[in-house]
RNA sequence: GCGGGAGUCGCCCAGCCUGGUCAAAGGCGCAGGGCUUAGGACCCUGUCUCUUAGGAGUUCGUGGGUUCAAAUCCCACCUCCCGCACCA
């Protein structure tokens, strides 16, 4: 059947709109406040974004059907720098970005022209995204929409940030960042050429003294100071004499420049060439001992300070340089006597690990690239497995991994060392072309996420929350653990200014943490009830925290009370949805900021995290050209098929795979269900036959299982229940009724179908409405109740059908193996003493007793079942039978002692056998007189496993 | 390195917490049949190996262990994925 998906989408979206179906105000019903991370409008939404929002929508729709008053609002996050960067690139005529906008996102030329203004980009994609959300059928209350640069929102953020500052959770300090010296701006991944993240490490500078100067050398292994034998100098480098905060240093020119950005006061006093330094002696910082400076070509002026401290026993570079050096020296000279000093004992290595590594890898000279590998090996092994030797003074006997920090502290305390921050992946170039550096930003504002009390409170909140899926929970705990000060303001981009320092703008991950509360305000602002300038500290304090009174200047008291009431009704947030990439930042900040600002009764209740979407098994990316904008997909396939395809391919946290085949499958499934709806009429129920009772039981189970899955947002599983799991059961039912030539089941089928449509409706809201209408129901399915389980499931009905199915399977099996064409089938049911034995064994098994020998003994001891000894195989097989049956069914079997197999089979199985195998079937109990049993099969009969003879 | 997660019958992916419903669901693919002018869609049957009586054998990353019983619990190992910050 051809279905015009787009027409159906529009039809029902219009109906919902006419009914104001998704507008939610406070009322006397129980509420659920469902939120999802709002989008950043720098591109249209693609299928991947669609997943998070679709899950949230399904969640909201489900809860509505469960009878809750559900609020599902949406806002738009304009704050941030990427839009600014985009705008700059468009202005510069960057073809890469312009082509992308045109070809992937189909943005018209006229619109692109306006993109030189950042706000135009945000506005354009804002509308684009919103349209897409409407077209996807999201049940959003649009009256509460806002952007983060609305004046009223900015008032809200000012209040938030002021409140945090009052609580001393915002502090000032310095912080290293990747920095473009030309733009005078921090750089992050999307500001650099090739999108590289500027990474940096902290080197320890060990300060050696020389002739009134300090010669610092950079190292990542301060503990090796005890094994220093000399310094390495590159004779070809011209070094600078500089003064650093009053101290006189000798370093390379590159190093001097790096120091300038690290908030050090530098003046240049002169130069000294490397060759001049070679051969001179310097003094160790920690004891009065002199070592020489020697020449080495591997020393690079751009790395560290341009001078290297040599630890030949433990650093392969140093070891090899020493070997090279000695080759060029006349024998017998004093310098030939320099010997590596071993200071670390490591299992698997001897006195001089560096030597072993160098020799193992066959390294030829100090310019051999394999030295990197050797260094990595030794560093790793010594760090994790090494123990410091006696010659390391107070640190002797400690593990390297443990001693390192205390050595660092000791060096700093004694002023033997300093710090140098350096890019690890240099050169990093800014998009403007300039080479980036590490800069220490001073006077930076931080949220003090390192605060112990704050962490404790957040952990408490988290412990009380539902986190779905559960196994992501440890990740939240981990993040709270390692979080420390986090910059909360930057100098560029759209956003709200810091109230106390207007040069700074509140950073985008800090102005998006408690905005769910603002949805309450937004409705009143949008309706013109209250305006931005009236939103004072007193107002927010009262509305959100209940502090002060409703006497707020400029706002009528009853309005303030109304807003406060609505806030009190909807808060706390019942569920927050987002993609998993926001776990280590937004979602955790969301918890932290809530516990900082709101009282415990308004702490969030739940977080639901989902994975991303792949296209044909591959990651979506611009370069692959496999990004499908959501709206394009909706036009092509319809909203519901997309919603289902995204949801059905993976459980919450897994990556979902989106592909055309999958959509096709879903479309077909929905189409055939739709067709059924057009054909099935509501009729009166007949008197219920066994299979009717059975299918009702199955339906109850379906509702139960689907509901359980929905409650845990296991949407994939729920969809499977609703769409597929029921099919094989329904098939059996149809087979049964058909073989009995029944014509009175339409009413039952109609009920089943109605239930399935109800449960489908949160997932595929449009087609479900259409199906609902076709089934002849009045009203909207989206406003109906989720089906409830009321009927008691008849255990006898379940058992009967299981038995019939089992026999049919057995017959089919025998026919398959023997390949005979049946003429006549005879069934033999077990004798009553076997049933008694069966129940005895069942009880034993249920009590955990499965030992064959003791069961046997007890059976023989009982005269009622003593006959069992003629047939010892029976016990063995029966135990197996029982174990291969679900615990649920075991219980029902235990509950129903009387079960007349023979009459059931003769009533119900004959017609089935006739229609399936085309033969007549006769039934005997194994002890019947006049039994027809030419092959002696009857004695093999077991309860629920009758013997079969096929001729 | 730290932290989190995963390895299942051609593919995707359930099951594992709470051992026996497990030769292991479902979807896709493939094979046969039905329907159809044909194709598509849809429906049925089959899809580890062996088997002329409903059975048996070998499987759930690898190797051990616990148990009457292990995909499921314990230990060790191998492989893969993700996050580690000033960025939405």
TrEMBL record:
Q: Which InterPro entries would you find in this protein's record?
A: aa-tRNA-synth_Ia, Leu-tRNA-lgase_arc, Leu-tRNA-synth_Ia_arc/euk, M/V/L/I-tRNA-synth_anticd-bd, Rossmann-like_a/b/a_fold, tRNAsynth_Ia_anticodon-bd, Val/Leu/Ile-tRNA-synth_edit
GO CC annotation: cytoplasm
Location in the cell = Cytoplasm
Q: Where on this chain is 'KMSKS' region (motif)? A: 619-623
**Primary location group:** cytoplasm
Q: What EC designation does it have?
A: 6.1.1.4
Q: Which UniProt keywords apply?
A: Aminoacyl-tRNA synthetase, ATP-binding, Cytoplasm, Ligase, Nucleotide-binding, Protein biosynthesis
SUPFAM superfamilies found in the cross-reference section: Anticodon-binding domain of a subclass of class I aminoacyl-tRNA synthetases (SSF47323), Nucleotidylyl transferase (SSF52374), ValRS/IleRS/LeuRS editing domain (SSF50677)
Q: Which GO terms describe its molecular function?
A: aminoacyl-tRNA deacylase activity; ATP binding; leucine-tRNA ligase activity
Q: Which reaction does it catalyse?
A: tRNA(Leu) + L-leucine + ATP = L-leucyl-tRNA(Leu) + AMP + diphosphate
GO BP: leucyl-tRNA aminoacylation
Q: Which Pfam families match?
A: Anticodon_1, tRNA-synt_1
The residues that the entry says bind ATP are 622
Q: Where would I find the Methionyl/Valyl/Leucyl/Isoleucyl-tRNA synthetase anticodon-binding domain in this sequence?
A: 692-825
Q: Where is the Aminoacyl-tRNA synthetase class Ia domain?
A: 11-657
Give residue numbers for sequence motif 'HIGH' region.
39-49
Which family is this sequence assigned to?
A: Belongs to the class-I aminoacyl-tRNA synthetase family.
User: Which named protein is this?
Assistant: Leucine--tRNA ligase
This protein's encoding gene: leuS
């Amino acid at each position: 059947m051809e279905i015009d998906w787009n027409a159906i989408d529009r039809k029902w979206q219009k109906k919902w709109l006419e009914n104001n179906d998704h507008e939610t105000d406070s009322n006397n019903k129980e509420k659920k406040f469902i939120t999802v991370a709002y989008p950043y409008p720098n591109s249209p939404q693609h299928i991947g974004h669609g997943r998070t929002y679709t899950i949230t929508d399904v969640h909201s729709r489900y809860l509505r059907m469960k009878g809750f008053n559900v609020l599902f609002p949406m806002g738009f996050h304009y704050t941030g720098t990427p839009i600014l960067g985009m705008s700059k690139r468009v202005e510069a005529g960057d073809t890469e970005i312009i082509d992308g906008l045109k070809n992937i996102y189909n943005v018209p030329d006229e619109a692109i022209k306006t993109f030189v203004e950042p706000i135009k980009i945000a506005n354009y994609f804002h509308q684009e995204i919103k349209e897409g959300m409407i077209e996807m059928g999201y049940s959003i209350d649009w009256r509460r929409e806002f952007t983060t640069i609305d004046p009223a929102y900015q008032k809200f953020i000012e209040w938030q940030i002021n409140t945090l500052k009052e609580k001393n959770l915002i502090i000032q300090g310095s912080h290293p960042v990747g920095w473009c010296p030309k733009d005078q701006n921090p750089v992050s991944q999307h500001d650099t050429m090739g999108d590289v993240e500027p990474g940096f490490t902290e080197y320890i500078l060990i300060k050696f003294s020389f002739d009134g100067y300090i010669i610092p050398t950079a190292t990542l292994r301060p503990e090796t100071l005890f094994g220093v034998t000399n310094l390495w100098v590159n004779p070809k480098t011209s070094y600078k004499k500089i003064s650093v905060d009053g101290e006189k240093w000798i370093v390379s020119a590159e190093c001097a420049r790096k120091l300038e950005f690290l908030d050090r006061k530098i003046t240049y006093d002169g130069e000294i060439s490397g060759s001049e330094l070679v051969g001179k002696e310097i003094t160790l910082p920690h004891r009065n001992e002199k070592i020489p400076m020697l020449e080495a070509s591997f020393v690079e002026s751009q790395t560290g300070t341009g001078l290297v401290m040599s630890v030949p026993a433990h650093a392969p570079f140093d070891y090899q340089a020493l070997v090279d050096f000695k080759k060029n020296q006349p024998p017998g000279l004093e310098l030939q006597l320099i010997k590596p000093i071993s200071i670390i004992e490591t299992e698997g290595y001897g006195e001089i690990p560096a030597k072993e590594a160098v020799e193992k890898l066959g390294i030829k000279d100090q310019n051999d690239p394999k030295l990197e590998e050797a260094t990595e090996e030794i560093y790793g092994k010594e760090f994790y497995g090494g123990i410091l030797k006696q010659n390391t003074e107070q640190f002797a006997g400690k593990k390297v991994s443990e001693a390192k920090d205390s050595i660092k502290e000791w060096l700093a305390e004694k002023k033997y060392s300093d710090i140098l921050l350096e890019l690890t992946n240099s050169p990093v170039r800014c998009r403007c072309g300039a080479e980036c550096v590490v800069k220490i930003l001073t006077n930076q504002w931080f949220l003090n996420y390192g605060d112990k009390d704050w962490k404790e409170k957040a952990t408490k909140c988290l412990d009380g929350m539902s986190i779905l899926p559960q196994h992501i929970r440890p990740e939240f705990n981990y993040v709270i653990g390692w979080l420390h000060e986090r910059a909360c303001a930057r100098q560029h981009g759209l956003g709200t200014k810091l109230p106390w320092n207007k040069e700074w703008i509140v950073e985008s991950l800090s102005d998006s943490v408690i905005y769910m509360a603002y949805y309450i305000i937004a409705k009143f602002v949008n309706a013109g009830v209250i305006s931005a300038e009236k939103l004072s500290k007193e107002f927010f304090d009262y509305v959100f925290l209940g502090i002060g009174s409703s006497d707020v200047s400029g706002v009528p008291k009853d309005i303030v009370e109304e807003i406060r009431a609505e806030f009190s009704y909807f808060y706390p947030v019942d569920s927050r949805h987002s993609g998993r990439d926001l776990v280590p930042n937004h979602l955790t900040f969301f918890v932290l900021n809530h516990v900082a600002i709101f009282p415990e009764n308004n702490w969030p209740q739940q977080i639901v995290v989902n994975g991303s979407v792949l296209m044909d098994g591959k990651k979506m990316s611009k370069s692959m050209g496999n990004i499908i904008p959501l709206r394009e997909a909706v036009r092509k396939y319809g909203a519901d098929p997309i919603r289902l395809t995204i949801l059905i391919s993976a459980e919450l946290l897994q990556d979902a795979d989106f592909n055309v085949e999958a959509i096709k499958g879903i479309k077909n499934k929905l189409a055939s269900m739709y067709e059924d709806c057009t054909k099935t009429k509501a009729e009166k129920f007949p008197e219920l036959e066994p299979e009717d009772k059975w299918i009702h039981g199955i339906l109850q189970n379906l509702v139960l299982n689907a509901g359980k899955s929905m409650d845990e947002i296991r949407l994939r599983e729920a969809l499977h229940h609703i769409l597929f799991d029921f099919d094989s059961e329904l098939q059996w039912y149809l087979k049964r009724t058909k073989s009995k030539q029944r014509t009175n089941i339409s009413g039952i089928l109609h009920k089943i179908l109605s239930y399935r449509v109800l449960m489908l409706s949160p997932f595929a809201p449009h087609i479900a409405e259409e199906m609902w209408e076709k089934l002849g129901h009045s009203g909207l399915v989206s406003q109906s109740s989720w089906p409830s389980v009321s009927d008691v499931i008849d255990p006898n009905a379940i058992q009967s059908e299981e038995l019939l199915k089992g026999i049919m399977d057995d017959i089919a099996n025998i026919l398959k193996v023997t390949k005979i064409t049946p003429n006549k089938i005879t069934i033999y049911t077990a004798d009553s003493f076997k049933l008694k034995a069966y129940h005895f064994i069942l009880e034993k098994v249920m009590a955990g007793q499965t030992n064959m020998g003791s069961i046997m003994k007890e059976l023989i001891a009982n005269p009622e079942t003593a006959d069992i000894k003629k047939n010892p195989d029976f016990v063995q097989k029966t135990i197996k039978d029982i174990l291969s049956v679900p615990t649920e069914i075991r219980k029902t079997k235990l509950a129903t002692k009387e079960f007349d197999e023979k009459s059931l089979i003769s009533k119900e199985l004959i017609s089935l056998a006739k229609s399936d195998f085309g033969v007549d079937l006769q039934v005997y109990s194994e002890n019947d007189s006049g039994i027809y049993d030419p092959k002696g099969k009857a004695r093999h009969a077991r309860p629920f496993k009758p013997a079969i003879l096929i001729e």
